[in-house]
């Protein structure tokens, strides 16, 4: 019997159309080639066609790529459409090395690929193409052995592409017979599809964009999107500038300058693997982005692409992102909502491809073996540091806001109304009330507050029978109580573990938009609150036990405390 082909080319290529590329990942494969060719300007154009036949949906029928790189000579152009061919095959100093990505990416969405290229601005454009429908027809007619790519020919570029054609050297790639981008399939409409591609490409190629390369999609020049918030003049910085200069930002009452647009570097740690090194970078998002607790899912957060960052790691190979994904259990714990404010990047060179599971297409990627273990250990440490800093920052913001109705204002006002029937306080003190409230204003507002702000605050609180403020003071004491002229001033110590682990998280959930609080976060915080309240009572009981006769000393205190608590709980509710 005669030998038969190992591969039925047409049918195999038809099967390879299901390679699982997203549109952005597919576009990225062509951009890779343009960057390797030294292009400074890369243009992408998606052409939309109206509904045809019985279909009521519009669709993208063609995608055009253009670059002003060095172009391809005749030999390279002839092999460009050959799966497995690459001038950089298996090299470790380039973005690509398998000769597969751009071809499979094209077939994933379209059935025809055409390429024009030239290496000399004074020479005509050379052209090659491959049409999958033609290949399958040839194979079905018994001509499978003739399937291939013809020699490049000189062919004028159609007028449809004159607006994107490079003036000098460069390459023009056209995917046509696109049949997998109809409205509602990859996105609800053409505009959503374009925006998603812009978002992904601006992140994948952020280093190149930040360094001055130009990538344009349907006439829009992309700004880099840095999920670490370390770069300047990015998409996120533009959104922050709009928010704080002309948007809703000033209403928050935060002191935000452009220096607050840059992230806080938590760690940049080398991860040694054999003779090579990967680098782990962890950042806490800037104050302008973290703002205050409970805003991780609002309109600004969505514009900054913060919710989608939750638990994600950006893996960078040769300054090109090849994956932005969650890696199961890499934090050593489950991912929580506040993790969306932590930027994580792992950068490496191709020598470490085997440790990162790099494949012939830049997808389905996950570190393993020794590398995974080292990353987990480092991330467990650095992510905890970032979370602690975030909690501290949110606590500072809660205390620094200058509206200063006060963190506990709603409850103290309601309690003031409810307290009119309570017994009159009997405490006597030599402390001058005006002086006590001025000191409190200094504790709450800080030494840099102007005299008017202090006067306004004092005027607001000195008429209340109770004042509670969260302030920072040294020592293990959770609260400090002053009795001044029949009024009670209570300071809660924000350094205390009870405040940090119970009070502040509960307060954050209480003031958050319901949509921004996950069930897991609510349950976790509630459980910790029950633990903390139980331990509060245990600690109080133990503190009483430090007196020789606690019954005689504290019985009346407990009676009053229980009586007042019952009365106030009955009268004060639903004020937050």
From TrEMBL:
Residues in coiled coil: none
Taxonomic superkingdom: Bacteria
Signal peptide annotation: none
PANTHER family the record matches: MORC S5 DOMAIN-CONTAINING PROTEIN (PTHR23336:SF76), ZINC FINGER CW-TYPE COILED-COIL DOMAIN PROTEIN 3 (PTHR23336)
Record protein name field: Uncharacterized protein
GO MF, one annotated term: ATP hydrolysis activity
Organism: Nonomuraea dietziae
TM helices/strands, residue ranges: none
UniProt-listed Pfam families: HATPase_c_3 (PF13589)
